[in-house]
Amino acid sequence: METLPRPSVEKEPLPNHDIPSPPPPSVPQPPPTPYIPARPELDSVVEFIDKWRPAKPWRVEEKYQIELSTKLSSEFGDECVKTELNVLDGRIDIDVMGIGIELKVPSKTQLQRLVGQANMYRKHYGPNLVVVIFAEKARMQDIIAFRHDLAALGIKVFVK
């Protein structure tokens, strides 16, 4: 009996594991803001806020604003501190030499609104924006998540 030659079967090449996988879908980034340099006084103001402790836990934001703006005026001079300054479509709580300070005694819904507010203020102040959260009324897990979101935008956040 005569044997016929077997047809050759081409094997598929093995996958090349050296080929990089496509990048993951990108996370939406905030729109770029015009370049605004950090003010030379920023470090001094940030250090002051970091060390400042409110005299007592107030129930309303305005009391914190009065107390902090008074202390800032004593440290940096009355002419350098403005309160309730109109900025874009809002009002920043305190402005110290071109450094915006937004204060919040938040509930969860106010924290969510503050992300949008802070992003708007960031367009005006750039890196010269500080947010101070007074944590009496909000859950700490909400504040931590919010703090992370703002830090990702380059905003300095203090929790008192």
The run of helices and strands is HHEEEHEHE
User: In the CATH classification, which architecture applies?
Assistant: 3-Layer(aba) Sandwich
**What is the topology, as strand order, of the major beta sheet?**
1-2-3-4-5
Silhouette: globular
Helix-and-strand structural type: alpha/beta
The proportion of residues forming helix, as a percent range, comes to 25-40%
State the major sheet: 5 strands, mixed
Low-confidence segments: none
Helical segment tally? 4
How many domains, as an integer? 1
3D structure, described in words:
This protein is 36% helix and 18% strand. Strand 1 (81-87) and strand 2 form a beta hairpin. The protein has helices at residues 42-51, 61-76, 108-125, 140-152, and strands at 81-87, 90-96, 99-104, 129-133, 156-159. The protein has a single domain (45-159), classed as Trna Endonuclease, Chain: A, domain 1. The protein is globular and about 105 Å long. Helix 3 (108-125) runs parallel beside helix 4 (140-152). The longest helix has 18 residues, at 108-125. The protein has 160 residues and is of the alpha/beta class. It is built from 4 helices and 5 strands; from the N terminus they run H-H-E-E-E-H-E-H-E. Strands 1-2-3-4-5 form a 5-stranded mixed β-sheet, with helices on both faces.
Short synopsis of the structure:
This protein has 160 residues and is of the alpha/beta class.
SSE order and pairing:
Layout: H1 42-51, H2 61-76, E1 81-87, E2 90-96, E3 99-104, H3 108-125, E4 129-133, H4 140-152, E5 156-159
Helix pairs in contact: 3-4
Characteristic key phrases:
160 residues, 36% helix, 5 strands, alpha/beta, Trna Endonuclease, Chain: A, domain 1, 4 helices, globular
